[in-house]
């Protein structure tokens, strides 16, 4: 490929609305262009990298025994209504009607469609196990599309689905997909961790997310320094913290706390450590106002709260109208004196119930209680007690008791054990070895292809631009003649270019009549793993300058050796 023919319009300035490094560099390096909020066009450089990621995914899916299909993006509402998810899925689903007023959606995921497909074709245990996958665009109406390709309304995803006779078969399929994902992300050059995860709207039992660790990650990952335990912070299971010695219970006392509407402000005003306070956070969970209580220095785990409420709907922060409806005074709330009703629930974290003489809201403006003793002062028959706090790095590893670390992660893949959630709802059965109908046992496995592209940049870049892992770089090498107007230099550059192509290197020849400095800046910005410079020194000594983008190493080699040298260096990247 010649750079003069490549459609890659680079930018010298970073667009003002670009939030993260991957978005900034992909815009500046001519990889993508924003068409609307959360919608992007992939230009040739991005599409080359996407196709390389897809090739790796295809190879590993087929190696694991999965077969590729392609399902419609537009899905009829009937199959979602049959599974019970049409109303549950939420506002992220993009819904539409055809000219006959029939309802459809743009596929955010394909569990209903694949189950409907297979139930009409698979009817015997002899046809199992079966594993099918596809790669296509998915559509989700994100409330706040941001971070470029990491949270967009349209994104490229690989989704696979396994069908087995029983849980033992599902275990084998799950492991095969898990192992395939490890190979995919290793080959893509990512530093990642598989972590225990919540199944979310997809449902099912066991689930693991594959997290590319990076500062721009939206997910918090907790992992142990001593063992291989790792989990999304939402699924981490903190121990119940108990006082070393039971304290004598003090008298419940009302104190004035004018304008102290946050627990931090209260702790400062009363000169208390946060761990001697309790914090109230109010949610709306499917129409019920829920008061969640945790220790003052802890945070509510919204996934755990959703499970405690046995709800399929994610919690949302309560509105002023919600608080008014159940008579709560924002900033001064605790369970003392409160009782559950049909539209009001109280959920208290287990650790709170082990506390003594703490400070919390008095349920009246500008006032708090001190010496709250939850076992004495809460109506425990009228509330739910559950583990609803987020695990922290100060907790101990649930597996080995070791020290924990927190990191940011970008979710690039997730695997789920669905079990019979969809097959039972959609009546997808097969005749087992006894001749009786049984529901198919399913698994679901997703990879964010476009998100993997962004994650690679978030992990590998410097102040000059992208540093691509060799396997997914748009080009593996670039040949840069210092002066494209010099016929002798262009002739040598073409010789090097042809030799590399013959050796199987994916190479670009920068034949543009630009200054050398512009070409070098573009090479660093775009992130070609190897740059080969053809200069007057090359004409005099027959030596080519080779520069490795990853570590900045520069050296020279003979013209006749350039193909061997580049191929060897690429193998090491």
Describe the structure.
With 573 residues, the protein is α+β, with helices and mostly antiparallel strands. It has three domains: 18-210 and 419-457, Bira Bifunctional Protein, Domain 2 (BirA Bifunctional Protein, domain 2), CATH 3.30.930; 253-386, Alpha-Beta Complex (YbaK protein), CATH 3.90.960.10; 475-572, 3-Layer(aba) Sandwich (Rossmann fold), CATH 3.40.50. It is 26% helix and 28% strand. The protein is built from 15 helices and 31 strands. The strands form eight sheets. Strands 3, 7, 8, 9, 10, 11, 12, 21 and 24 form a nine-stranded mixed β-sheet that branches. The protein has a five-stranded mixed β-sheet with strand order 16-14-15-17-20, with helices on both faces. Strands 28-27-29-30-31 form a five-stranded mixed β-sheet, sandwiched between helices. β25 (461-462) and β26 (465-466) form a beta hairpin. The chain is globular, with a radius of gyration of 29 Å. 42% of the residues are buried. The mean pLDDT is 94. InterPro entries: aa-tRNA-synt_IIb, aa-tRNA-synth_II, aa-tRNA-synth_II/BPL/LPL, Anticodon-bd, Anticodon-bd_dom_sf, Pro-tRNA-ligase_IIa, Pro-tRNA-synth_IIa_bac-type, Pro-tRNA-Synthase_IIa_type1. One of its GO terms (molecular function) is proline-tRNA ligase activity. This is Proline--tRNA ligase. Its main location: cytoplasm. Keywords: Aminoacyl-tRNA synthetase, ATP-binding, Cytoplasm, Ligase, Nucleotide-binding, Protein biosynthesis.
């Amino acid at each position: 490929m010649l750079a003069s023919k490549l459609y890659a319009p680079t930018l010298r300035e970073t667009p003002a609305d670009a939030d993260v490094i991957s978005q900034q560099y992909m815009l500046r390096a001519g990889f993508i262009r924003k068409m609307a909020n959360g919608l992007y066009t992939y230009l040739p450089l991005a599409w080359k990298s996407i196709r390389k990621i897809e090739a790796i995914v295809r190879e590993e899916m087929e190696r694991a025994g999965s077969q590729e299909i392609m399902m419609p993006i537009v899905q009829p509402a009937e199959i979602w209504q049959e599974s019970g998810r049409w109303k549950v899925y939420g506002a992220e689903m993009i819904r539409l009607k055809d000219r006959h007023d029939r309802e459809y959606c743009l596929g955010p995921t394909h569990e209903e469609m694949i189950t409907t497909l297979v139930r009409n074709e698979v009817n015997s245990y002899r046809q199992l196990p079966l594993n099918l996958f596809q790669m296509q665009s998915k559509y989700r109406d994100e409330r706040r599309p941001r971070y470029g390709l990491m949270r967009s309304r349209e994104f490229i995803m690989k989704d696979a689905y396994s069908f087995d006779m029983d849980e033992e078969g599902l275990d084998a399929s799950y492991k095969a997909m898990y192992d395939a994902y490890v190979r995919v992300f290793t080959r893509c050059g990512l530093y990642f961790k598989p972590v225990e995860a919540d199944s979310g709207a997809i449902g099912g039992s066991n689930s693991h997310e594959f997290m590319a660790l990076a500062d721009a990650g939206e997910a918090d990952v907790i992992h142990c320094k001593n063992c291989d335990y790792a989990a999304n912070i939402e699924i981490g299971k903190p121990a119940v913290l108990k006082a070393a010695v039971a304290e004598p219970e003090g008298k419940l006392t009302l104190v004035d706390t004018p304008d102290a509407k946050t627990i931090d402000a209260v702790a400062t005003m009363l000169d208390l450590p946060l761990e001697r306070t309790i914090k109230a956070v109010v949610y709306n969970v499917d129409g019920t106002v829920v008061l969640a209580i945790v220790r003052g220095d802890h945070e509510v785990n919204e996934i755990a709260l959703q499970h405690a409420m046995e709800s399929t709907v994610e919690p949302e922060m309560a509105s002023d109208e919600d608080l008014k409806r159940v008579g709560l005074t924002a900033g001064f709330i605790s369970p003392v004196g409160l009782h559950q009703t049909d539209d009001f629930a109280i959920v208290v974290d287990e650790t709170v119930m082990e506390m003594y003489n703490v400070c919390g809201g008095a349920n009246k403006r500008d006032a708090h209680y001190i010496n709250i003793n939850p076992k004495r002062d809460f109506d425990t028959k009228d509330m739910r007690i559950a583990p609803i706090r987020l695990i922290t790095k100060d907790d101990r590893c649930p597996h080995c008791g070791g020290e924990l670390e927190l990191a940011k992660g970008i979710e690039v893949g997730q695997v789920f054990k669905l079990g019979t959630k969809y097959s039972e709802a959609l009546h997808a059965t097969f005749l087992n070895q006894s001749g009786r109908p049984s529901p198919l046992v399913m698994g679901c496995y997703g990879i964010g292809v476009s998100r993997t592209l962004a994650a690679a940049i978030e992990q590998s870049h410097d102040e000059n631009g992208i540093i691509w892992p060799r396997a997914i770089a748009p080009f593996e090498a670039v040949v840069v003649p210092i002066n494209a107007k010099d016929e002798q230099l262009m002739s040598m550059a073409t010789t090097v270019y042809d030799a590399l192509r013959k050796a199987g290197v994916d190479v670009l020849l920068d034949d543009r009549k630009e200054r050398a400095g512009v070409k070098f800046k573009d090479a660093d910005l775009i992130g070609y793993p190897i740059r080969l410079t053809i200069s007057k020194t090359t004409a005099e000594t027959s030596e080519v300058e080779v520069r490795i983008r990853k570590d900045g190493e520069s050296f020279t080699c003979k013209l006749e050796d350039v193909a061997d040298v580049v191929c060897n260096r690429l193998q090491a990247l």
